[in-house]
From TrEMBL, chain B:
Domain named Ig-like: residues: 2-89
Protein name: IGL c1411_light_IGKV1-5_IGKJ1
Localization terms from the record: Cell membrane; Secreted
The species this protein was found in: Homo sapiens (Human)
Pfam short name (any one): V-set
GO biological process, one term: adaptive immune response
Keywords for the protein's UniProt record, in alphabetical order: Adaptive immunity, Cell membrane, Immunity, Immunoglobulin, Immunoglobulin domain, Membrane, Secreted
The keyword Membrane appears for this protein: yes
Major localization listed first in the record, in broad terms: membrane
Claim: Secreted is one of the keywords in the record: yes
Length: 118, 106
């Protein structure tokens, strides 16, 4: 089955760190670009970060630049998001999504919830 | 940065109604626009890509049109399963989502 499964969310204090993982299966992960998208409670979707298929090119939203780092391990079919210096406003469900210009964000994970609170 | 503005924010409609949602880009994005449907607690689902291409398996009552800065998503005859929130997304320059349009039961 073609799927993405996120893990690693949880409750963390402001200023803390968390690492999210997205496990891919059912397709050739190393051929695809990947993104992280988040959704604060009751709010809309916000693109967070992008990585190309080999991990050599990344982009970040201004809201997380300098604090979050996206990476991937194609041998493990896994995508990561290292989140440092977390803020209350980073509280959200975080989705990984497969990107392709021919079909946009066709494949999404189910999301993992990050709560930043003291 | 490219900003995406959807209207309306909320839409009340009945089963069988024709529904149109508009999305405007702050600068030209050619046809690099997608539409997604999201239900509470679920991941978004791709409906339309490249402004007017219907994703496989999506009912033909959904259609998209537009280019440049103005785009529309039309549901020709609203069905009970269509009550959800809809987002446009540009991918001409990085990625930006509209703020969403919630389609409610009238």
């Amino acid at each position: 089955e073609v799927q993405l499964v996120e893990s690693g969310g949880g409750l963390v204090q402001p200023g803390g760190s968390l690492r999210l993982t997205c496990a891919a299966s059912g397709f050739t992960f190393s051929s695809y670009e990947m993104c992280w998208v988040r959704q604060a409670p009751g709010k809309g979707l916000e693109w967070v970060s992008y990585i190309n298929s080999v991990g050599s090119n990344t982009h970040y939203a201004d809201s997380v630049k300098g604090r979050f780092t996206i990476s991937r391990d194609n041998a493990k079919n896994s995508l990561y998001l290292q989140m440092n210096s977390l803020r209350v406003e980073d509280t959200a469900a975080y989705f990984c999504a497969r990107w392709a210009q021919r079909d946009a964000f066709l494949l999404w994970g189910q999301g993992t919830v990050v709560t930043v609170s003291s | 940065d490219i900003q995406m503005t959807q209207s309306p924010s909320t839409l009340s409609a009945s089963v069988g109604d024709r529904v149109t949602i508009t999305c405007r880009a702050s600068q030209s994005i050619s046809s690099w626009l997608a539409w997604y449907q999201q239900k509470p607690g679920k991941a978004p689902k791709l409906l339309i890509y490249k402004a007017s291409s219907l994703e496989s398996g999506v009912p033909s009552r959904f259609s998209g049109s537009g280019s440049g800065t103005e785009f529309t998503l039309t549901i020709s005859s609203l069905q009970p399963d269509d009550f959800a929130t809809y987002y446009c997304q540009q991918y001409n320059s990085l990625w930006t989502f509209g703020q969403g349009t919630k389609v409610e039961i009238k």
